[in-house]
C-alpha cells in the first residue's frame, strides 16, 4: 500500500476517500481540509481575531494546532466546568500545550466566576439532560468572552461525526428551528459573534490520527456525563453505517449543506432576540431571563 501523494509506504488508509497516505502526507491532507473548509465558506481571514474553544480533547487540540501552524490570530478559550478529575486533566493538557507553543490562552473557571460548577448545576436541575446544561453554559461563555475580547469569529471543533449526529437528532424530532441552524457558519447578530466549524470535513478518527501522528497531547477519557447521551448513540450508528457504506457520513451532511439547508431555512422564521434582564446577553423575545441566568439563579 503506497501513499497516493508521494509514493512512499502508506500507514494511513481512508476508506471513504479510497486512498492512503504516509504520515507526512496525511498531515498535509488534514491541514488542507481545514483550510479548504475555511476558504469555502469564508469563515474568517488571517487578519481577523479568532477565538477557538479548546476542551483538551483530540478534536479541539488538533484544530488549535492547525490554526497556530497556519498563522491565524488565535486566542484559545478553555472553560473549566469543575467536573472533578476530568476537568483537572483537561485543563492541565491545555495549559501545558499553550505554554509549549507560546499561545494565548484564556481559562474561564465556571465555579470561580459564578459560584457554581457544572456538577452543581446538573444536581440542581435533575430533570434536564446534562448535555443540554453543558451546551448552554459553553455557548454562553464562548459568546460572552468573544464580545469582551472583540473577537471576529468563535471557532469550535465540531467534526463531521458531530454534525451528522446533531442534524439527525434534530430530524428525529422534526425540530425545524434546530434543523435550520445546522450549519458550518452562523453569521453575527445583535449581541452574537460569528461562529464557524472548520473541522466539518473531517471525522473523529481522522482527528485522532492527526493528533497521534503529530504528538499533540489530548485527554483520552470521555466526559463522565456523556454516558448514554443521544449524540454518542447516533455517532455509533453512523460508524456502523460507514463500515458498510464508506462515505455515508459525508454524503448525508454535505448533501444537507448543498440542498437541504436552504429549504429548511426558507420555512423557518428567525426568532427575535432581546437583552436578558440580568446579564444583557441575547435571549428569545418574550423571556425575561436567558437560560444561562435561569440556571445560575436556580429558577425553573
Give an account of the 3D structure.
By secondary structure, the chain is α/β, with parallel strands linked by helices. It folds into 2 domains: 242 residues, HUPs (Rossmann fold, 3-Layer(aba) Sandwich), CATH 3.40.50; 32 residues, no CATH class. Helices cover 49% and strands 13% of the residues. A hairpin with a 7-residue loop joins strand 7 and strand 8. Helix 7 crosses helix 11. The chain is globular. The protein starts with 11 loop residues before the first strand and ends with a helix. The mean pLDDT is 95.
Summarize the helices and strands and which ones pair or pack.
Layout lengths: L11 E3 L4 E3 L1 H18 L8 E5 L4 H12 L3 E8 L3 H18 L2 E6 H5 L3 H7 L5 H19 L4 E3 L4 H14 L2 H5 L4 E2 L7 E3 L7 H10 L16 H15 L3 H19 L6 E3 L6 E3 L6 H6 L4
> SS-based structural class?
alpha/beta
Q: Quaternary status of these chains?
A: single chain
Give the H and E element order: EEHEHEHEHHHEHHEEHHHEEH
> Count the helices. How many?
12
The low-confidence parts are: none
CATH topology name of the largest domain: Rossmann fold
Report the strand count: 10
Averaged pLDDT: 95
User: Which word captures the global form?
Assistant: globular
Distance between the termini: 59 Å
Amino acid at each position: 500500500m503506497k501513499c497516493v501523494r508521494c509514493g512512499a509506504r502508506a500507514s494511513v488508509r481512508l476508506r471513504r476517500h479510497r486512498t492512503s497516505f504516509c504520515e507526512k502526507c496525511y498531515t498535509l491532507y488534514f491541514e488542507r481540509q481545514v483550510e479548504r473548509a475555511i476558504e469555502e465558506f469564508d469563515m474568517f481571514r488571517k487578519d481577523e481575531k479568532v477565538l477557538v474553544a479548546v476542551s483538551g480533547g483530540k478534536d479541539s487540540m488538533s484544530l488549535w494546532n492547525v490554526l497556530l501552524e497556519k498563522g491565524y490570530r488565535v486566542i484559545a478559550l478553555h472553560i473549566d466546568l469543575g467536573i472533578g478529575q476530568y476537568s483537572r486533566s483537561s485543563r492541565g493538557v491545555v495549559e501545558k500545550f499553550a505554554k509549549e507553543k507560546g499561545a494565548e490562552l484564556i481559562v474561564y473557571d465556571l465555579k470561580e466566576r459564578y459560584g457554581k460548577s457544572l456538577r452543581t448545576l446538573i444536581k440542581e436541575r435533575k430533570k434536564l439532560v446534562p448535555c443540554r446544561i453543558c451546551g448552554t453554559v459553553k455557548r454562553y461563555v464562548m459568546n460572552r468572552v468573544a464580545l469582551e475580547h472583540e473577537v471576529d469569529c468563535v471557532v469550535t471543533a465540531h467534526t463531521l461525526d458531530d454534525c451528522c449526529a446533531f442534524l439527525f437528532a434534530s430530524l428525529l424530532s422534526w425540530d425545524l428551528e434546530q434543523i435550520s441552524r445546522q450549519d458550518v457558519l452562523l453569521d453575527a447578530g445583535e449581541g452574537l459573534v460569528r461562529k464557524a466549524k472548520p473541522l466539518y470535513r473531517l471525522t473523529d478518527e481522522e482527528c485522532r490520527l492527526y493528533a497521534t501522528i503529530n504528538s499533540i497531547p489530548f485527554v483520552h477519557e470521555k466526559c463522565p456525563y456523556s454516558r448514554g447521551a443521544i449524540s454518542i448513540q447516533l455517532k455509533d450508528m453512523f460508524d456502523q453505517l460507514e463500515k458498510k457504506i464508506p462515505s455515508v457520513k459525508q454524503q448525508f451532511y454535505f448533501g444537507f449543506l448543498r440542498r437541504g439547508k436552504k429549504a429548511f431555512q426558507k420555512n423557518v422564521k428567525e426568532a427575535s432576540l432581546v437583552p436578558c434582564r440580568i446579564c444583557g446577553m441575547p435571549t428569545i423575545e418574550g423571556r425575561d431571563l436567558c437560560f444561562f441566568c435561569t440556571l445560575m439563579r436556580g429558577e425553573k
